UniProtKB/TrEMBL annotation:
<keyword id="KW-0547">Nucleotide-binding</keyword>
<feature type="domain" description="Helicase C-terminal">
    <location>
        <begin position="519"/>
        <end position="711"/>
    </location>
</feature>
<keyword id="KW-0347">Helicase</keyword>
<dbReference type="InterPro" id="IPR046931">
    <property type="entry name" value="HTH_61"/>
</dbReference>
<dbReference type="InterPro" id="IPR050474">
    <property type="entry name" value="Hel308_SKI2-like"/>
</dbReference>
<dbReference type="GO" id="GO:1990518">
    <property type="term" value="F:single-stranded 3'-5' DNA helicase activity"/>
</dbReference>
<dbReference type="GO" id="GO:0097681">
    <property type="term" value="P:double-strand break repair via alternative nonhomologous end joining"/>
</dbReference>
<feature type="compositionally biased region" description="Polar residues">
    <location>
        <begin position="226"/>
        <end position="236"/>
    </location>
</feature>
<feature type="domain" description="Helicase ATP-binding">
    <location>
        <begin position="299"/>
        <end position="471"/>
    </location>
</feature>
<keyword id="KW-0539">Nucleus</keyword>
<feature type="compositionally biased region" description="Basic and acidic residues">
    <location>
        <begin position="197"/>
        <end position="223"/>
    </location>
</feature>
<keyword id="KW-0227">DNA damage</keyword>
<dbReference type="InterPro" id="IPR014001">
    <property type="entry name" value="Helicase_ATP-bd"/>
</dbReference>
<keyword id="KW-0234">DNA repair</keyword>
<keyword id="KW-0238">DNA-binding</keyword>
<dbReference type="GO" id="GO:0045003">
    <property type="term" value="P:double-strand break repair via synthesis-dependent strand annealing"/>
</dbReference>
<keyword id="KW-0413">Isomerase</keyword>
Length: 1058
């Protein structure tokens, strides 16, 4: 047979056998030698005749009994034919020696390996038999083409067997096998050990009736297995998919070798498989990288795994470089990756965009935001994980990895908006996180990126990093200033810093001049509705007023632009708001205009952002938070005033806002216009021409969230043991590098001493033994139980003592008639100071409480008489802790929200913005999770553990129990969960197996992009849960290494060497 030829053509014999059945043979008794020879000749003549005859299909009876009776479904050398002949010979042999010979031969030559799988699939695998003369004679017209997969012609129902047959090929030689004889419905000939047959032969010289019946049932059982196989559902067996997976695996192996070597060859796509490039095209529409991106990815420092800081203007494409580096770490170096982002909304957006990559490339994308995220993370033996976290959750994740001794599992940490290291308490937490990673892991690479960095040298020293920067912008940005009706272009080369551009041509009536003195209507109508525009306003209320005002002076032609889509959008907006609709949006949306600020719910903001991104809305009036949030670029960006609330703009903030101007791939130029008054002219000129502000550490300013929190964790995580070790660590922090500039009065040593003294005073740290003054720096410190609980709960240390007292007091009379008492204990302390109760509403809600709930108010120290006096304006003589009063008020808001699960109704009841109510809910869910971890470390609070676990779930989702599984999916909010549930998608499994096209047709106002993101996020979540369960099962079944009476392999080797 030649090596190159046509594809195998299989012959299928459908002849009716003339031989008798097994039962007939048994009834007739053994064949005489002459009869056997005569029958063999007849069979040979029959075969010759049928070689020249055309194929004739048999009639299909449809019954199980007749499906194979008398017909052979394989070729003439099929296994059933062989079995039939062997049965006949066996029945005529008094000593049955033929069976022993058969098995002896099978053991030596392995002509056939026969197996029945769990699905009752039966198949024959030919090995040495193919070289026999009989086989070569039958294969006269059969040739094999190199590269052809022999499985391509195999029935799909047999495919799974072939996959498993290799694993079972050694079963016969396994001495521990204990299969019983006769065969069960899922056993085969080769499953029977030869020794067992020999034993039965020796022990039973004369076969009994039961033995004969067992022999008779052999063929019937094989037929039964084949019948079940025919009935079994055909599994999908994609040869193409297998080929793609094989290619991907091979390319990853090549990429690993490339990264390990010093070669300049970057492989198919920057040391990544070519499939990654295809995925960027498919899911992000990115076909080619910018020159700066190529340069950055090929930097020598990255190949040497050094830390890197890179800085480019907004919209320059920084994130793509980070994503490629993360994929290299996950796929090629097989390490976990942590990505730290500033806000929850950005975390969720990134989760949605990378879930498809995780599914296609085989890694997990895990969310760490709010109350989501498992601490410590699951330790996976197979697939790696990409943790996408907010600053606070990222800090808790790193703490848990250090405590578990697993910090080296992190191969890469990516920090977006690195300049936030200089912004308040969140900046202090980010600095603490990075400092711990640098100190505890020498193998973890850190990548930081930002659009607004200035004092890079100090950041480089802190992170021990290289620096790369570029001025590249995909779209040119032109900056303008507007004073009265004159527009000037910013030009740093000009003497004044600006040059005259043009006069604003607009015909304003007296009424319009009075309503719009800044000519906003004229500025926006130059670009909308064909192009997009953002108007940044100083306050939330100003956003709504400006949107409303602009609509009043637009002509009716704007109503016709994408009219149907705007009508659909309004319906969707009403749907996500549980039937309610903001009156301002109801007026502005028909004109393609809306406002965007934190007073909206997350559902509303998400729908508005989607409508703006698709062009249904052409103008958004917004606050500065949009500039730091999701990416929503515009053709023109207008700054209503150089203020945020009452504070003058900083250069960094200004740069972030104007950076939204210009949409890559859509606009050729982007414009920013800053409206200013004559009185602010000097300040604005300094603003637009000054360099970016420096980043300064807030570790020393944020005492309880900064330096005290850091020192507590250093002792608790055993990173340092004493003051000397702490000082050594602190010298390497960003604060330590800047300390002389930030605190000239006190040395770093003195600052550390004072912080430690404060922690010991609070009962969070203690000395191991009494030390003399001269040995103070060497005296070992240890964390107390309260300190350990505070560390695990990642609490602000300013509140840990108060929380402990509140929980202790709660044990004395915990009221469990409702959730009110537990909600009070988990209401965030940091939101209490912002609360301004409406005393009439407070009294009204207090009167609606039942006796048990009013008892809660009495226990915490708020009386009805106090609220009544405040509501009536009477003087209060008795001192009452206002923090407790305000905290109970917020608790009533949360308590009402849990009962009604409708943010709109609750916000109206308490006269609060719906966005504030939702932020309160999210804050409570996060704080409740912290309190739960706090209680888990203190045995005296064991009663709270189960109660707070359930409450955390309720606060996290605040929906009916049926919707909770759907709410776990990233990007699915309450309104969408209701739609999906009503459409029959009631579980994560339903959505993971859903067709996005069917979802689009089934769910109203669902875009194709959203449908794909929901399905991919559901698949990712399902894979995570399945993998976790599988690894848990493996852990349970894995025998422990320290079983009494056994010795480990290492100990055995040690004994042998003695």
């Amino acid at each position: 047979m030649e090596d190159s030829g046509s594809v195998i053509r299989r012959r299928v014999s459908t002849r009716k056998r003339s031989r008798r059945s097994l039962r007939e043979t048994a009834a007739a008794g053994p064949l005489e030698p002459g009869q056997e020879q005569e029958r063999e000749e007849e069979g040979t003549d029959g075969r010759r005749r049928r070689r020249s005859e055309s194929l004739e299909l048999p009639e299909y009876d449809g019954s199980e009994e007749d499906m194979f009776d008398g017909y052979d479904s394989f070729a003439e050398n099929s296994f059933l034919a062989q079995v039939d002949v062997l049965e006949q010979k066996y029945m005529q042999s008094p000593e049955h020696g033929i069976i022993e010979k058969l098995y002896s031969k099978s053991t030596e030559t392995r002509e056939f390996d026969v197996i029945a799988t769990d699905s009752d699939l039966t198949e024959v695998k030919t090995r040495d038999y193919c070289n026999s003369p009989e086989t070569l004679r039958l294969q006269e017209n059969v040739t094999i083409e190199p590269g052809d997969d022999l499985l391509c012609d195999v029935p799909c129902s047999q495919a799974l067997y072939i996959e498993k047959v290799k694993d079972s090929s050694n079963d016969l030689n396994n001495p521990s096998a204990k299969e019983s004889y006769p065969l069960s419905s899922h056993q085969t000939l080769n499953d029977i050990p030869v020794e067992q047959l020999q034993e039965k032969k020796n022990s039973s010289p004369k076969h009994t009736e039961s033995d004969l019946n067992r022999r008779r049932s052999l063929k019937d059982r094989l037929k039964s297995a084949m019948t079940g196989n025919a009935k079994a559902q055909t599994p999908k067996f994609s040869k193409r998919k297998q080929l793609k997976e094989a290619i991907l695996s091979e390319e990853i192996n090549v990429a690993k070798k490339t990264l390990e070597s010093s070669s300049d060859d970057l492989g198919p796509f920057y040391s990544l498989p070519s499939k990654v490039r295809d995925l960027f095209v498919q899911y992000k529409g990115i076909k080619k990288l910018y020159d700066w991106q190529h340069t950055c990815l090929t930097l020598t420092c990255l190949q040497q795994r050094k830390n890197l800081i890179y800085s480019l203007p907004t919209s320059g494409g920084k994130t793509l470089v980070a994503e490629i580096l993360m994929l290299q770490e996950l796929l090629c170096r097989q390490k976990n990756v942590l990505m730290i982002l500033p806000y929850v909304a950005i975390v969720q957006e990134k989760i949605s965009s990378l879930s498809n990559f995780g599914i296609e490339l085989g890694f997990f994308v895990e969310e760490y935001a709010g109350s989501k995220g498992r601490v410590p993370p699951i330790k996976r033996r197979g697939k790696k994980s990409l943790y996408i976290a907010t600053i606070e959750k990222g800090h808790g994740l790193v703490n848990s990895l250090i405590e578990e001794g697993r910090i080296n599992e992190l191969g890469l940490v990516v920090v977006d908006e690195l300049h936030m290291i200089g912004e308040g308490s969140r900046g202090a937490i980010l600095e603490i996180t990075l400092a711990k990673i640098l100190y505890t892991s020498k193998t973890t690479q850190i990548i930081g990126m930002s659009a607004t960095l200035n004092n890079v040298e100090e950041l480089q020293e802190f992170l021990n990093a290289e620096y790369y920067t570029s001025k590249f912008r995909p779209v040119e940005l032109k900056e303008y200033l507007k004073i009265n009706d004159t527009i000037y272009e910013v030009d740093i080369k000009a003497e004044k810093g600006y040059t005259f551009s043009r006069l604003l041509k607009c015909k304003y009536s007296d009424h319009l001049k009075k309503m719009d003195p800044d000519h906003l209507v004229a500025l926006v109508t130059e670009v909308i509705p064909n192009y997009s525009c953002l108007v940044f306003c100083p306050t939330k209320k100003n956003c709504e007023n400006v949107a409303d005002m602009i609509c009043k002076f637009l002509n009716k032609d704007y109503l016709k632009h994408r009219e149907k889509e705007k009508c659909d959008f309004l319906k969707n907006l009403k749907n996500v708001s549980n039937g309610s609709l903001c009156p301002v949006l109801k007026r502005t949306v028909p004109f393609g205009i809306a406002y965007h600020h934190s007073g909206l719910t997350s559902d509303e903001r998400k729908v508005l952002e989607e409508a703006y991104a698709t062009g249904v809305l052409c103008l958004l009036t917004c606050t500065s938070t949009l500039a730091a949030g999701v990416n929503l670029p515009a053709r023109r960006v207008i700054l209503r005033a150089p203020y945020i609330a009452t504070q003058f703009l900083k250069r960094n903030q200004y740069q972030q806002m104007i950076g939204r101007a210009g949409r890559a791939g859509i606009d050729t130029v982007g414009e920013s216009i800053l409206i200013l008054q004559e009185k602010d002219k000097h300040l604005v000129l300094n603003l637009v021409n000054s360099p970016l502000e420096n980043c300064y550490s807030h570790l020393g300013q944020e005492i309880t969230k900064g330096i005290q929190s850091l020192l507590l964790s250093l002792i608790g995580l055993k990173i340092a043991k004493n003051l000397e070790g702490i000082y050594h660590f602190m010298c390497a922090t960003f604060f330590g590098i800047q300390q002389k500039r930030l605190s000239e009065e006190k040395s770093l040593w003195e600052i550390c001493r004072k912080a430690l003294a404060s922690l010991m005073e609070k009962g969070l740290l203690q000395k191991r033994s009494v030390c003399k003054n001269e040995e103070e720096s060497q005296c070992e410190l240890q964390i107390t139980k309260l300190g350990q609980a505070s560390l695990k709960g990642t609490l602000d240390l300013a509140y840990c003592g108060t929380l402990y007292k509140d929980l202790k007091k709660g044990l004395e009379g915990l009221v469990l008639e409702s959730y009110l008492h537990l909600i009070y204990l988990t209401t965030p302390y940091d939101m209490v100071s912002q609360c301004r109760p409406d005393w009439m509403i407070y009294l009204r809600q207090f009167d609606h409480l039942n006796s048990g709930e009013q008892k809660v108010a009495a226990i915490v120290g708020v009386s009805e008489s106090f609220i009544t006096k405040k509501a009536s304006g009477q003087a209060i003589k008795k001192d009452v802790d206002r923090n407790i009063v305000n905290r109970l008020y917020l608790s009533l808001v949360l308590f009402t929200l849990l009962k009604e699960t409708n943010v709109w109704r609750v916000s109206e009841k308490f006269n609060m913005s719906r966005g504030y109510v939702q932020n309160l809910l999210n804050g409570a869910a996060s704080f409740c999770s912290c309190v739960l971890h706090f209680c888990e470390e203190l045995e005296e609070f064991w009663v709270y553990r189960a109660l707070l676990t359930e409450l955390t779930k309720k606060l996290s989702y605040c929906v009916k129990a049926d919707l909770v599984p759907l709410m776990e999916i990233t990007g699915v909010l309450e309104s969408r969960a209701k739609q999906l549930y009503d459409a029959g998608y009631k579980t994560v499994t339903h959505l993971a197996n859903a067709d996005p096209e069917v979802l689009i047709r089934t769910i109203n106002h669902l875009s194709r992009r959203q449908a794909k993101q929901i399905v991919s996020s559901a698949k990712m979540l399902l894979n995570e849960k399945a993998e976790a369960l599988q690894e848990e099962v493996e852990d349970l079944l894995r025998p422990p290494s320290d079983i009494p009476g056994t010795t480990t392999p290492s100990s055995k080797n040690h004994e042998l060497t003695q």
